[in-house]
Recover the amino acids of this structure.
Protein backbone atom coordinates (compact mmCIF):
# COMPACT_ATOMS: atom_id res chain seq x y z
CA UNK A 1 0.00 0.00 0.00
CA UNK A 2 1.29 3.47 -0.85
CA UNK A 3 2.58 5.48 2.09
CA UNK A 4 0.36 8.40 3.08
CA UNK A 5 1.87 11.30 5.06
CA UNK A 6 -0.76 12.56 7.46
CA UNK A 7 -0.07 14.05 10.88
CA UNK A 8 -3.76 14.27 11.81
CA UNK A 9 -4.57 12.09 14.81
CA UNK A 10 -7.00 9.34 13.86
CA UNK A 11 -9.38 7.37 16.12
CA UNK A 12 -8.07 4.18 14.45
CA UNK A 13 -4.61 2.83 13.71
CA UNK A 14 -2.94 1.38 10.63
CA UNK A 15 -2.69 -2.07 12.20
CA UNK A 16 -6.50 -2.28 12.05
CA UNK A 17 -6.32 -2.27 8.23
CA UNK A 18 -5.70 -5.37 6.16
CA UNK A 19 -2.50 -5.18 4.13
CA UNK A 20 -2.61 -5.33 0.32
CA UNK A 21 0.07 -4.68 -2.25
CA UNK A 22 -1.81 -1.88 -3.99
CA UNK A 23 -1.01 1.56 -5.38
CA UNK A 24 -3.52 3.81 -3.59
CA UNK A 25 -4.13 7.52 -3.08
CA UNK A 26 -6.58 9.21 -0.74
CA UNK A 27 -10.16 10.04 -1.74
CA UNK A 28 -10.86 13.77 -1.20
CA UNK A 29 -12.68 14.66 2.03
CA UNK A 30 -14.76 17.84 1.57
CA UNK A 31 -17.11 19.82 3.80
CA UNK A 32 -20.70 19.33 2.69
CA UNK A 33 -20.96 22.98 1.56
CA UNK A 34 -17.88 22.77 -0.68
CA UNK A 35 -18.90 23.35 -4.34
CA UNK A 36 -16.11 20.99 -5.46
CA UNK A 37 -18.34 18.11 -4.34
CA UNK A 38 -20.64 18.73 -7.29
CA UNK A 39 -17.67 19.00 -9.64
CA UNK A 40 -16.43 15.55 -8.58
CA UNK A 41 -19.89 13.99 -8.77
CA UNK A 42 -20.35 15.48 -12.26
CA UNK A 43 -17.03 13.89 -13.26
CA UNK A 44 -18.13 10.53 -11.85
CA UNK A 45 -15.37 10.61 -9.22
CA UNK A 46 -15.62 9.57 -5.56
CA UNK A 47 -15.68 12.05 -2.69
CA UNK A 48 -16.25 11.87 1.06
CA UNK A 49 -18.85 14.41 2.20
CA UNK A 50 -18.13 15.51 5.79
CA UNK A 51 -19.93 17.44 8.55
CA UNK A 52 -23.38 17.10 6.97
CA UNK A 53 -26.72 16.33 8.60
CA UNK A 54 -27.59 13.67 6.01
CA UNK A 55 -27.50 10.80 8.52
CA UNK A 56 -27.12 12.87 11.71
CA UNK A 57 -30.14 11.28 13.42
CA UNK A 58 -28.69 7.82 12.83
CA UNK A 59 -25.16 8.84 13.84
CA UNK A 60 -26.49 10.15 17.15
CA UNK A 61 -28.71 7.16 17.97
CA UNK A 62 -27.98 4.00 16.00
CA UNK A 63 -25.52 2.31 18.29
CA UNK A 64 -25.62 -1.51 18.33
CA UNK A 65 -27.48 -1.31 21.65
CA UNK A 66 -30.11 1.08 20.24
CA UNK A 67 -30.61 -1.10 17.17
CA UNK A 68 -30.95 -4.23 19.31
CA UNK A 69 -33.71 -2.53 21.25
CA UNK A 70 -35.52 -0.81 18.39
CA UNK A 71 -34.93 -2.61 15.08
CA UNK A 72 -38.10 -4.66 15.53
CA UNK A 73 -39.08 -8.24 16.29
CA UNK A 74 -39.26 -9.55 12.73
CA UNK A 75 -36.43 -11.62 11.28
CA UNK A 76 -33.63 -10.00 9.30
CA UNK A 77 -31.39 -11.33 6.55
CA UNK A 78 -28.05 -12.45 7.97
CA UNK A 79 -25.17 -13.82 5.92
CA UNK A 80 -22.81 -16.34 7.51
CA UNK A 81 -19.25 -16.99 6.37
CA UNK A 82 -16.50 -19.39 7.46
CA UNK A 83 -13.94 -16.61 6.89
CA UNK A 84 -13.86 -12.81 6.82
CA UNK A 85 -15.01 -12.52 3.18
CA UNK A 86 -18.64 -11.94 2.19
CA UNK A 87 -18.62 -12.21 -1.60
CA UNK A 88 -22.02 -11.50 -3.18
CA UNK A 89 -23.70 -14.10 -5.39
CA UNK A 90 -26.90 -13.98 -7.43
CA UNK A 91 -29.19 -16.84 -6.41
CA UNK A 92 -31.14 -16.57 -9.67
CA UNK A 93 -27.98 -17.44 -11.61
CA UNK A 94 -27.40 -20.61 -9.57
CA UNK A 95 -30.35 -22.47 -11.08
CA UNK A 96 -28.52 -24.20 -13.91
CA UNK A 97 -25.07 -25.78 -14.11
CA UNK A 98 -24.54 -24.09 -17.47
CA UNK A 99 -24.34 -20.73 -15.68
CA UNK A 100 -20.99 -21.81 -14.25
CA UNK A 101 -19.70 -23.58 -17.36
CA UNK A 102 -20.76 -26.97 -16.07
CA UNK A 103 -18.92 -26.61 -12.74
CA UNK A 104 -21.03 -26.88 -9.61
CA UNK A 105 -21.23 -23.52 -7.86
CA UNK A 106 -20.76 -23.64 -4.10
CA UNK A 107 -21.88 -20.38 -2.44
CA UNK A 108 -19.13 -18.85 -0.30
CA UNK A 109 -21.67 -17.73 2.30
CA UNK A 110 -25.06 -18.91 3.43
CA UNK A 111 -28.12 -16.84 4.17
CA UNK A 112 -30.51 -17.17 7.09
CA UNK A 113 -33.15 -15.20 8.96
CA UNK A 114 -32.37 -14.01 12.45
CA UNK A 115 -33.93 -11.66 14.96
CA UNK A 116 -31.78 -8.72 15.97
CA UNK A 117 -31.51 -9.93 19.57
CA UNK A 118 -30.11 -13.28 18.42
CA UNK A 119 -27.74 -11.58 15.97
CA UNK A 120 -26.32 -9.24 18.60
CA UNK A 121 -25.96 -12.08 21.08
CA UNK A 122 -23.92 -14.07 18.54
CA UNK A 123 -21.71 -11.02 17.91
CA UNK A 124 -21.01 -10.59 21.62
CA UNK A 125 -20.28 -14.30 22.12
CA UNK A 126 -18.34 -14.84 18.89
CA UNK A 127 -15.14 -16.89 19.11
CA UNK A 128 -12.56 -17.82 16.46
CA UNK A 129 -13.84 -20.81 14.51
CA UNK A 130 -17.46 -19.66 14.64
CA UNK A 131 -19.23 -18.43 11.52
CA UNK A 132 -18.80 -14.71 10.98
CA UNK A 133 -21.99 -12.63 10.61
CA UNK A 134 -23.27 -9.75 8.47
CA UNK A 135 -26.84 -8.38 8.73
CA UNK A 136 -28.55 -6.59 5.84
CA UNK A 137 -32.00 -5.04 6.22
CA UNK A 138 -33.93 -2.75 3.85
CA UNK A 139 -35.02 0.42 5.61
CA UNK A 140 -38.79 0.36 5.33
CA UNK A 141 -41.80 0.48 7.64
CA UNK A 142 -40.99 -2.96 9.10
CA UNK A 143 -37.93 -1.80 11.04
CA UNK A 144 -39.76 -0.38 14.03
CA UNK A 145 -41.24 3.07 14.72
CA UNK A 146 -38.11 4.57 16.30
CA UNK A 147 -35.94 3.77 13.29
CA UNK A 148 -38.64 4.99 10.92
CA UNK A 149 -38.69 8.29 12.82
CA UNK A 150 -34.91 8.56 12.67
CA UNK A 151 -34.94 7.71 8.96
CA UNK A 152 -37.48 10.45 8.23
CA UNK A 153 -35.17 12.91 10.03
CA UNK A 154 -32.33 12.32 7.55
CA UNK A 155 -31.40 15.49 5.64
CA UNK A 156 -33.40 14.50 2.58
CA UNK A 157 -33.33 18.07 1.24
CA UNK A 158 -29.54 17.95 0.82
CA UNK A 159 -29.40 14.52 -0.72
CA UNK A 160 -32.37 15.19 -3.02
CA UNK A 161 -30.65 18.33 -4.31
CA UNK A 162 -27.64 16.23 -5.29
CA UNK A 163 -29.92 13.64 -6.87
CA UNK A 164 -31.75 16.26 -8.94
CA UNK A 165 -28.68 18.35 -9.82
CA UNK A 166 -26.91 15.35 -11.35
CA UNK A 167 -30.03 14.01 -13.07
CA UNK A 168 -29.97 10.54 -11.56
CA UNK A 169 -32.85 8.12 -11.79
CA UNK A 170 -35.12 7.31 -8.83
CA UNK A 171 -34.00 6.13 -5.41
CA UNK A 172 -34.28 2.32 -5.50
CA UNK A 173 -33.48 1.35 -1.92
CA UNK A 174 -31.88 2.19 1.39
CA UNK A 175 -30.06 -0.72 2.98
CA UNK A 176 -29.01 -0.97 6.62
CA UNK A 177 -25.77 -2.92 7.09
CA UNK A 178 -24.58 -4.22 10.47
CA UNK A 179 -21.20 -5.87 10.17
CA UNK A 180 -18.96 -7.80 12.51
CA UNK A 181 -15.53 -6.21 12.95
CA UNK A 182 -13.00 -7.40 10.38
CA UNK A 183 -15.59 -8.42 7.78
CA UNK A 184 -14.75 -7.72 4.12
CA UNK A 185 -17.03 -7.21 1.14
CA UNK A 186 -14.65 -8.14 -1.72
CA UNK A 187 -14.10 -5.94 -4.75
CA UNK A 188 -17.17 -5.48 -6.99
CA UNK A 189 -19.09 -2.79 -8.86
CA UNK A 190 -22.76 -1.76 -8.89
CA UNK A 191 -24.88 -0.50 -11.74
CA UNK A 192 -26.28 2.28 -9.56
CA UNK A 193 -25.15 5.53 -8.01
CA UNK A 194 -24.46 5.15 -4.30
CA UNK A 195 -24.28 7.46 -1.30
CA UNK A 196 -22.70 5.31 1.41
CA UNK A 197 -23.38 6.68 4.89
CA UNK A 198 -21.23 5.54 7.81
CA UNK A 199 -23.28 5.53 11.01
CA UNK A 200 -21.25 3.72 13.67
CA UNK A 201 -17.68 2.45 13.72
CA UNK A 202 -15.13 2.73 10.91
CA UNK A 203 -14.92 1.18 7.46
CA UNK A 204 -12.11 1.28 4.94
CA UNK A 205 -13.27 1.69 1.34
CA UNK A 206 -10.90 1.02 -1.55
CA UNK A 207 -12.18 2.18 -4.95
CA UNK A 208 -10.98 1.65 -8.51
CA UNK A 209 -12.20 3.51 -11.62
CA UNK A 210 -14.12 1.76 -14.42
CA UNK A 211 -11.06 2.01 -16.68
CA UNK A 212 -9.44 -0.71 -14.51
CA UNK A 213 -12.12 -3.17 -15.67
CA UNK A 214 -9.66 -5.54 -17.37
CA UNK A 215 -7.20 -5.33 -14.45
CA UNK A 216 -9.80 -6.61 -11.98
CA UNK A 217 -11.05 -9.57 -14.02
CA UNK A 218 -14.81 -9.63 -13.36
CA UNK A 219 -16.70 -12.89 -13.53
CA UNK A 220 -18.80 -13.36 -16.71
CA UNK A 221 -22.27 -11.80 -16.58
CA UNK A 222 -23.97 -15.21 -16.48
CA UNK A 223 -22.00 -16.32 -13.41
CA UNK A 224 -23.54 -16.10 -9.90
CA UNK A 225 -20.60 -13.83 -8.97
CA UNK A 226 -21.44 -11.37 -11.78
CA UNK A 227 -20.00 -7.89 -11.04
CA UNK A 228 -17.46 -9.37 -8.61
CA UNK A 229 -13.70 -9.43 -9.19
CA UNK A 230 -12.12 -12.87 -9.55
CA UNK A 231 -8.93 -11.62 -7.86
CA UNK A 232 -8.37 -12.56 -4.23
CA UNK A 233 -6.81 -9.43 -2.74
CA UNK A 234 -5.31 -11.45 0.12
CA UNK A 235 -3.47 -13.82 -2.25
CA UNK A 236 -3.56 -12.41 -5.80
CA UNK A 237 -2.66 -14.92 -8.51
CA UNK A 238 -0.47 -12.81 -10.78
CA UNK A 239 -0.01 -15.65 -13.26
CA UNK A 240 -3.73 -16.03 -13.85
CA UNK A 241 -4.46 -12.30 -13.42
CA UNK A 242 -1.28 -10.50 -14.59
CA UNK A 243 -2.87 -7.10 -15.20
CA UNK A 244 -3.87 -6.85 -11.55
CA UNK A 245 -0.37 -5.48 -10.91
CA UNK A 246 -1.33 -2.40 -12.97
CA UNK A 247 -4.41 -1.48 -10.96
CA UNK A 248 -4.41 1.99 -9.35
CA UNK A 249 -7.06 2.97 -6.87
CA UNK A 250 -7.99 5.32 -4.06
CA UNK A 251 -9.04 4.76 -0.48
CA UNK A 252 -10.53 6.31 2.61
CA UNK A 253 -11.63 5.31 6.08
CA UNK A 254 -15.16 6.57 6.56
CA UNK A 255 -16.03 7.84 10.02
CA UNK A 256 -19.43 8.19 11.73
CA UNK A 257 -21.40 10.86 9.88
CA UNK A 258 -19.36 10.63 6.66
CA UNK A 259 -21.16 10.06 3.36
CA UNK A 260 -19.01 8.53 0.60
CA UNK A 261 -20.14 8.98 -2.99
CA UNK A 262 -19.41 5.73 -4.87
CA UNK A 263 -19.97 6.47 -8.57
CA UNK A 264 -21.82 4.06 -10.81
CA UNK A 265 -19.59 1.22 -12.14
CA UNK A 266 -16.73 2.12 -9.79
CA UNK A 267 -15.18 -0.94 -8.18
CA UNK A 268 -15.22 -0.94 -4.39
CA UNK A 269 -13.73 -3.17 -1.72
CA UNK A 270 -15.07 -2.50 1.78
CA UNK A 271 -13.81 -3.72 5.15
CA UNK A 272 -14.90 -3.11 8.73
CA UNK A 273 -11.76 -2.30 10.67
CA UNK A 274 -10.27 -5.13 12.70
CA UNK A 275 -10.65 -4.86 16.47
CA UNK A 276 -13.02 -1.95 16.03
CA UNK A 277 -16.31 -3.47 17.14
CA UNK A 278 -19.46 -3.77 14.99
CA UNK A 279 -20.06 -1.24 12.24
CA UNK A 280 -23.35 0.25 11.06
CA UNK A 281 -23.79 1.74 7.57
CA UNK A 282 -26.60 2.88 5.27
CA UNK A 283 -26.67 2.78 1.46
CA UNK A 284 -28.67 5.17 -0.73
CA UNK A 285 -28.92 3.55 -4.16
CA UNK A 286 -30.12 5.51 -7.21
CA UNK A 287 -30.59 4.39 -10.77
CA UNK A 288 -28.29 5.99 -13.32
CA UNK A 289 -29.70 8.95 -15.19
CA UNK A 290 -30.78 9.01 -18.83
CA UNK A 291 -27.99 7.87 -21.12
CA UNK A 292 -26.82 10.30 -23.78
CA UNK A 293 -23.97 9.02 -25.91
CA UNK A 294 -21.39 11.73 -26.39
CA UNK A 295 -18.05 10.79 -27.87
CA UNK A 296 -15.57 9.85 -26.67
CA UNK A 297 -17.60 7.50 -24.46
CA UNK A 298 -17.06 7.54 -20.71
CA UNK A 299 -15.39 4.49 -19.16
CA UNK A 300 -18.53 3.37 -17.32
CA UNK A 301 -20.52 3.56 -20.57
CA UNK A 302 -18.03 1.19 -22.18
CA UNK A 303 -18.57 -1.30 -19.33
CA UNK A 304 -22.33 -1.08 -19.86
CA UNK A 305 -21.82 -1.83 -23.56
CA UNK A 306 -19.55 -4.77 -22.72
CA UNK A 307 -22.18 -6.23 -20.40
CA UNK A 308 -24.87 -5.88 -23.05
CA UNK A 309 -22.71 -7.63 -25.66
CA UNK A 310 -22.16 -10.55 -23.27
CA UNK A 311 -25.88 -10.75 -22.48
CA UNK A 312 -26.84 -10.62 -26.17
CA UNK A 313 -24.42 -13.41 -27.09
CA UNK A 314 -25.65 -15.57 -24.23
CA UNK A 315 -29.26 -15.04 -25.28
CA UNK A 316 -28.47 -16.11 -28.85
CA UNK A 317 -26.08 -18.98 -28.08
CA UNK A 318 -28.02 -20.27 -25.05
CA UNK A 319 -24.89 -21.91 -23.65
CA UNK A 320 -22.37 -19.80 -21.65
CA UNK A 321 -19.59 -22.19 -22.67
CA UNK A 322 -19.89 -20.94 -26.26
CA UNK A 323 -19.57 -17.22 -25.43
CA UNK A 324 -15.82 -17.17 -24.73
CA UNK A 325 -14.75 -19.16 -27.83
CA UNK A 326 -16.92 -16.97 -30.07
CA UNK A 327 -15.45 -13.77 -28.63
CA UNK A 328 -11.92 -15.12 -29.05
CA UNK A 329 -12.57 -16.06 -32.68
CA UNK A 330 -13.88 -12.55 -33.32
CA UNK A 331 -10.83 -10.86 -31.81
CA UNK A 332 -7.72 -13.02 -32.14
CA UNK A 333 -5.81 -12.26 -35.31
CA UNK A 334 -8.23 -9.48 -36.27
CA UNK A 335 -8.03 -6.96 -33.40
CA UNK A 336 -4.81 -8.24 -31.82
CA UNK A 337 -1.25 -7.97 -33.02
Amino acid sequence: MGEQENTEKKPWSADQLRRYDLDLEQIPRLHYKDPKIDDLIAENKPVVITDSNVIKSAKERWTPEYLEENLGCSGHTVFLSKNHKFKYFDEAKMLTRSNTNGIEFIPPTRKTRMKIVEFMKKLREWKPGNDRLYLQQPLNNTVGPCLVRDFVEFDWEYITKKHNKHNWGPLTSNLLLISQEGNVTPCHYDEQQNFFGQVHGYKRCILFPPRDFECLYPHPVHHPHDRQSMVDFDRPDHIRFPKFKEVKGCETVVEPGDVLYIPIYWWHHVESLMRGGPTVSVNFWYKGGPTSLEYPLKDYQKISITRNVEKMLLEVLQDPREVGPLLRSMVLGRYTE
Observations:
- Residues 116 and 141 are 16 Å apart (CA to CA).
- Residues 1-5 have pLDDT under 50 and may be disordered.
- The two ends are 34 Å apart (CA to CA).
- DSSP finds nine helices and 14 strands in the chain.
